[in-house]
Amino acid sequence: MSFLNTTEVAFGLDISDRNLRLIQLEKISQKIKIQLYNEIKLPPDCLIGGEIKQPKVFLDSLNKLIKTRRGHGQLSDEVISVLPEEKTFFKVVNTPLIHDEQIETKIKEIIPQDIPIDFNEIYLDYQIIEKNDNGLNILVGIAPKNIIESYIEILSQANLIPTVLEIEAAPISRLLLEQSQDQKPQVIIDIGAQRTGLFLYDKTVKFTISLPISGNKTTQHIVETLGLSWEEAEKAKIVCGLDKAKCHGALLEIFSDVINELNDRITKAINFYYYNFPEAKNIARVLLCGGGANFIDIAVVLQEKLKLPVIISNPFETIANPDKTFFNTQRSQSFITAIGLGLRGLRPDTFL
Ligand SMILES: Nc1ncnc2c1ncn2[C@@H]1O[C@H](COP(=O)(O)OP(=O)(O)OP(=O)(O)O)[C@@H](O)[C@H]1O
Ligand SMILES: [Mg+2]
């Protein structure tokens, strides 16, 4: 789903509140490789919830990201970037068989039945996924106008040509699902520092929701319950995880409510799918990605609750890893969005 035009070759730029990540891919005899890559930290408060609060600081950081890039070859001046997950969403709607020119009006009638929306403040994009005797199955993407406009403006100021801005479920599913042999209906959970996104995938993204958990909230919870400093808590989180044998299972205990909440939200999302999508098939698994997927034993603990297979994504299943020191196990999960955006740069015809 794109809110701008398509492009020939472009690099992917993942913008999160605290990090900028760059990926440019190349295709050499059917093999996809990372050509250029980089990551830099953004100063605190430069971006809050995806809104650019300090444009000058953002621009300096973006220029630094580009200047200090690793790899080989020339960087494209065309960029494919991502919109903040918590401010955007995808949703599939079903309509009767109607003419193309009636679709947008129909969507604007259907969407507000579930979600309050001011259509003057958002951009809407859609794609027909299926057309049959019963009607149309349409994937709708929604994103705020002010965010889109501010991203275009700032990228242009960096002398880049923003060609596509995507909702985050698009690059994630492009890398982890479309490239893979495994196309089972599944729930994908991207656990980031600031926010967690959940989406349901069955041949395409069916809907997305934002979950009220995050890596930072997890660290904060350790700070408050164990009386540690932020740095100590972050370290404890990484070293102990949810392993019963580590740190006397302390974190497993203090996170039991968070795990129950996560279990509850995932179950609700799956039930929402079963009740609202006539074509729904059994959900085969839950796939975890993003930095928070590195939380030791999170998959084991969730799987016990959900009674569904829970697995950790493998971002480099289909892409050659040029630098195992840089893209180590820990960091690889954080680069999924950037690589998925880079893939769109190689495959300009791809919808999702
Ligand atoms: N081994 C680990 N155990 C637990 N949490 C981890 C581990 N490694 C990283 N994290 C957490 O992952 C989070 C970072 O995830 P990620 O890099 O995907 O976020 P981001 O893309 O920068 O931010 P966001 O997507 O929220 O905008 C941090 O909260 C970090 O503490
Ligand atoms: Mg992220």
UniProtKB/TrEMBL annotation:
SUPFAM superfamilies referenced in this protein's UniProt entry, alphabetically: Actin-like ATPase domain
Q: Name one Pfam family in it.
A: PilM_2
The family database entries (CDD domains) matched by this protein are listed as:
ASKHA_NBD_PilM
Annotated InterPro entries: ATPase_NBD (IPR043129), FtsA/MreB (IPR050696), PilM (IPR005883)
Q: Which domain of life is it from?
A: Bacteria
Record's protein name: SHS2 domain-containing protein
Protein's organism: Candidatus Buchananbacteria bacterium RIFCSPLOWO2_01_FULL_39_33
Q: What lineage is on file?
A: Bacteria, Candidatus Buchananiibacteriota
